[in-house]
Amino acid sequence: MIRQVDVRGVRFQVADEGTGSAILFVHGFPLNHTMWSAQIVEFAKTHRVIAPDLRGFGGTDGALYSVSMEQFADDLADLLDALSIRSPVTFCGLSMGGYIGWQFVQKYRHRVSHLIVCDSKAAADSSDAATNRLKMADIVLRDGPEPVAWAMMPKLFAKCSSDHCPAAIESVRRMVMATNPIAIAAAHRGMAVRPDVTGILPTIQTPTLIVCGEHDTISPPAEMESIASAIPRSRYVVVPNAGHMAPMEQPEFVNRVIREFVL
Ligand code: MLT
Q: Is the dihedral of CA 29, 32, 38, 43 positive or negative?
């Protein structure tokens, strides 16, 4: 069921399916909850699946000039309250969703039973990367999402998987093109100033699963493996024949890995 949930003046669009302990799926940039379609179908069989569109993205309003990863995390905590979910959840984020996950697990530790970070990073942006994001924020506000689609699409999918998942690629392209430019600019500005969380990784006591596409060039396997090795109770899994969008490229493999972790 797709619900509209009002939280502190923002109307969130949220997929809310199934019953049981909750898994919160947090999408990457600049996408929406439908990137988790295969996970929503699978995990709604056994869990309550909550997959929101983040502030400004998809069907959610409330876009701001800049949105920090902490603000996105606060939104999610408020959203769980609005949905009366008080028990700890499994938090599963991809890329920007992972940046938000680091903030969520620091600030709302008691609300997370398991943390899953797919194709993401712990380090902050280099100063060049941050500068490029600020430029891209201005470009998107002027020209719309197309320049972001041009910049990102070639990096998201592994060559080997793109042959057999043209529908996934087309759906991501459509998601990017349909995203509100104000939300894209705001998230770029927020990601440009996100903190380096490498130092907090050894303090995370929550059981954590790190998932990385074998051919991810945005958050490469070596970098993700070192994140996993810094977190005490972590498991690290490489997804064969996948790039940055591993849960879309190899949904059955990723679903199996998540299921083994959360059971
Ligand atoms: C994402 O997939 O969310 C982006 O690659 C995050 C980023 O731009 O760093």
A: positive
